[in-house]
Fold these 4 entries.
Entry 1:
Amino acid sequence: MTQKAETFLLACIDPRLIDDSGMYFAAIGRGERYSEMRVAGAALALADPARAAWAATIWENLAASRQLHGVTRVTLLNHRDCGAMAQHLGRPFADAAEEERLHADVLARAAEAVRARHPDMRIETKLMELDGRVSILPCAVCAPRGPLVAEAVAPPAARAGFAELVRLRARDGTAGSPDVLTQGVTRYGLSAEEVRQVLAAERGAPPAAQDVAAFLRSRQDGRGRIGRQAVGEAARLYRRLAGPGTTPAESQARATSIAAAEGLAPRPEGWPLFRSTRWFDVSRGASSP
C-alpha cells in the first residue's frame, strides 16, 4: 500500500489553535502528511474512563487511518488553557506547573493506551502553548516495541524525528543537553555517531529559519512556486519563532529571503490581466525593476 500519511494527529477542538497545529506540522516537514482527528481535550479522551465512547471512536479512526493512509506514528497534541482539562480537574489550575503536570500525566496514560493496542507504532506526546510553540513532554512508552519496529519506522523517519526534537530544544538552549543525546539513542534508535551528525546539521542554521524553510517547501506548487498567502503565513511563523523583538516587516522580508534561498519562485498574483511577481520584491524590501 502506498503511504498517504505518516502521522495520525489527535488534537483538541479549541478553535484558537486549529491553524497553529497545521502550521506546526508544516514547519516540521509533515504538511499534508498527517491525518487529523479532533476531540475536546485531545489525549484526555484516551485517559479518562468517563469518555469511553470517545475513546472507542478514536480507536476506530486510528485503525482506519492505518489501513487507508499507512500511518506509522501517533501524535498526541494537548494545549494550554484547555477547558476540557480544567473541567476534568474540577477547578481552575493553581499555576502553570500544575497544568503541565496534569497534561504530562494525561498524555502518558494516553500513550500507554495507544502502545497497548499498537505496539509497533511511534508515539509523540506534545503540549502547545497559546502562541503556537510546542514542547515535547516525557514519555516512557513512546518508542515502538516488538518485531514490527524495523518495518514501521525507517531510519530516515527516526533521524527526522530526532532532528525535530533538536530544533525544539534549540529554542531554549538545551539542544546539546545530555537528556537530548540520550533520547537520540534510546527513543529514536540512532547510533552515537548519527546523533552527532544530526546535531551538527541542525546547528548550521537558526531554528526559525529552518522551520520557515520547511514550511515554505511544503506550500510550493508543482512548478516550485510560492504564493503571497504562503509567504505571509511563513512571516507570521518566523516572527512567532524568532520572538516579539522581530517586527512584522522584518519577518515578511526574512520569510521572502528564505523562500528565495530555497530556490522557490514567486507565483504571479493579482487580476488576470495584471498578474505579476512584484509582490515578492516588495515583500523582500527590494525595488521593482
Entry 2:
Amino acid sequence: MTEGQPNWFLREWIADKKMRQKDLLDRTQWQKSKLSKLVNGGSNYTRETLNALAVALGIEPYELLMRPERARAIREFEYSAYKLAAEGRMPFRPE
C-alpha cells in the first residue's frame, strides 16, 4: 500500500459481500463520518474496529487484512486439510 492508503481491504470486502456503506452503518451503528474515514484511509483501525467490522461482514477479523479471494483460498485449504485429517489421510488431527 502507498502512503495515505489504508493497509487493509475494507472497501474490497464491502464490494465482495455486495453491501453498501449504509449496510455497514446499520450493522455497526456507527456514525457515517467514522466509517467513511475508515474506508478512505483517513483513520486507523483498532482491534475493536476490526472485530466490529468482521462481525458486520460475516468474516474473521484477520481477513480484513487480505483480499477476499485470498481469504477464501485459505479457508478452502484449511477445510480440505481438516477433511483429510478427519478421514485419517494425514498424520495429524485438528484441534
Entry 3:
Amino acid sequence: MYAKSLGFAIALILAILVLPSSSYAQSRTATESVADIDTSTHPNGSIVILNKEQTDVPGYVHTQYAFIDQLCGAQLVDHYGPPVDPNDKELKLVEQRACMEIAMNTRDGD
C-alpha cells in the first residue's frame, strides 16, 4: 500500500514539473507562410500578434506572432506559454538574436 502511494506521489510530482516545461515552447518557420504581412508598415524590430488562443493549461496561451526586421523580414513564431507582450524589450532582444542567426546562416550558405 505504501509503495503504491509513493509511486503515485512521484508520478504526480513529475507530471506537475514536466507539464509546464513542455507547454512552454517556440518554433520558427519560414516567412513564406506569412507573405501577406507588409513589413513596410511596421517599424523595424517590432512584434505583430497574428493569433492568440487559450489552451487547456491555465495561464498558458498559443500565440502566433511575427517579428519584423529588415535583415530577415517577417519571422513567424509559434509560442506556447505565458501571454506575449509585443512591447517586451527582453523578447525583442531574443528575437533580434534569432534574426541575426538566420541572416548569418543565409549569407554563409548553410
Entry 4:
Amino acid sequence: MTRVRSRWSRPRTGDPASAPTDGGPPTAQVTPAELEDCLRACAVHSGKLVGSLDNRRIALAEQLRRLLARWAQEQPQPAPAGGTGGLIRRGARPAAGGGLSNDLLDDLLAVGNKSLDCGYDDELNLALLISDTVLTQRRNSRAGWRLRGRLLEAMGRPAAAVDAYERYLALTQEDGFGVSAKVAGLRTATERRAELLDLLRRTVPDAARHAGSPATDVWADGLAAHAEGDGERAQALLVGALVALDRAEAPEQEFQEALSHYLDLCTGSRARPTAELTEIIALFAEQRRNRMRGPLPDPLFGGVQWIGLGEFRNRIAGKSVCLIANSGKVGESGMGAEIDGYDLVVRFNSYRIDPAHTGRRTDIHATIHKHGFNWDQPVDTRLVFGGISGDWKYSLRNRLVPGAQQYLGDESLRWPVRNIGKWGTDRWPSIPTSGFNMLFLLDFLDVSPVLDLIGFDFYESGAYRLAEAMKMPITSVHEYTSEKAWVMERAQSVSGMRISLR
C-alpha cells in the first residue's frame, strides 16, 4: 500500500463528471443530476478520448458518439454549426415530452457500462454521473440500479453496492443476471472480513495504539520496522494501519491490497504459522472467494450428471428433435400441441412458454452463460455455451440451480462451432448465437431422423421472450444473415413455420 484515499474527488472546473459533490464516498443514494449537465460531461469526455490507443476507451468513444448523435436527433430544431457545443446547448430538451426518451436512456446506460468496463477513475466518475442522471430521471430503472450496483462494487463500496443491487431485485421478477448470488457473496464476504479484523485486533492488542493515526504513515512505519527486523513492533503498526483503513472507510480494493501484503509478510517471516495466523488466512481466503464467486450451498448441484459429446450423442440418437425460436411469430403460431409431439423439444436462452403456441415441454435448454434466464426451470438436459472457459465456469458456479437439470453439458460442449467444428474467425467472423451453436451441434452429430426448426425467421418478426428479457436489444454481435444462409443451404423443406433439415 503506497497511499490511502482520504477524500473523494470533486468536480474540476467545467467538468461535472466526478464523484458526489459533497466529497464523500459514493453511496446507493442518488445525487440529483440534470440530463443536460450529464450530456455536456459526455461531450467533454468524448473529446478527451480522441487518439486513445486503449481498446476499452476506443469502445467507449464509439458509444459516446452514438449517444451524442441520438441527442442531436432529439433536439426540437437543428443544432447550430460549431461542433459539439451545438449538440448539447443549454436549454435544449429531448423531443419526447421534455424528458429522457427510451432510446436516449438505452444509449446513456450503454455509455455507463462502457465507462465501467474501462475501470479508470475518470471513466468511473463519468459512470457515476450517468447513474445519478438515469436514476434522477427514472428512479425505478432496473438497468440503472444494476449499473449503480456494479459501479459501487468497482469503486470499492460493497455495502453500498448491496443496497443498489437490492433496489434492482425489488424491481424485477427475473434475476437473469445472477444478482441475488452476487448480493449473497458480498454479504458473506463482509461478515468474514469483520471476523478477520476482530481476530487481528485480539491477536495484536498493541495495534489499537496506532489505529488513530493516518493509515499511510502508520503503514510506512510498519514496513520500516519489518525491514529492521523488529517483528513485534512491525506487526502492531501494520495491523494498526489496517484498522485505520477500516475506520476511514477506505475503498475495499485498498484494504484488500494492504491485508494481502500484511499476510505475505507474516507467512514469509515464519517457518510455521501459528494457529491464529492459520485462522486469519482461512478467513482471508473465504472472504475473497465469496466476494469473487458468491457462496455455493450445494457443490454437487443436486447430483447433476455431466455429459460430454459422446454421451449427448447417445441421448439424442434416433429421436425426433425440434428447435423453437424465440421469435415473434412463434407466440401466435397455434402449434403448441404439434411441438409437444416431438421426442425432444429444444428451447433457447430466455424462452417464454405459452402452451397453446409454444408447447409445454422443454427437454433441452441451450443458453449463453452470460444471462441466467430460465436456469431454474426443470429440464432433462441443459447446455450452457460460452467462448471463454473461465467465464463459462464462473457462470456455471453462480447460476446453476441444484435439481433444475438432470444432465449438464461439460466443456466439450461449451462452444460447438469453435471447439467441435474448429471454425475460426477466418471462416466465421461473428460470435455464433446459442441457436446456431445448438443447430450446428445437432447437424454435426447427424443422429436425428427428424430435425425441425420452428419459427426461425432470425428475428424478422421481433423477439418473443420472458418479459424481463424483452427489454434487452437484439444484439449486433451476431451475424443472422450468415446463419440464415447456412440453414437454408441445408434445408430439405420449408413449410410455413417449419424448416426441416432432415
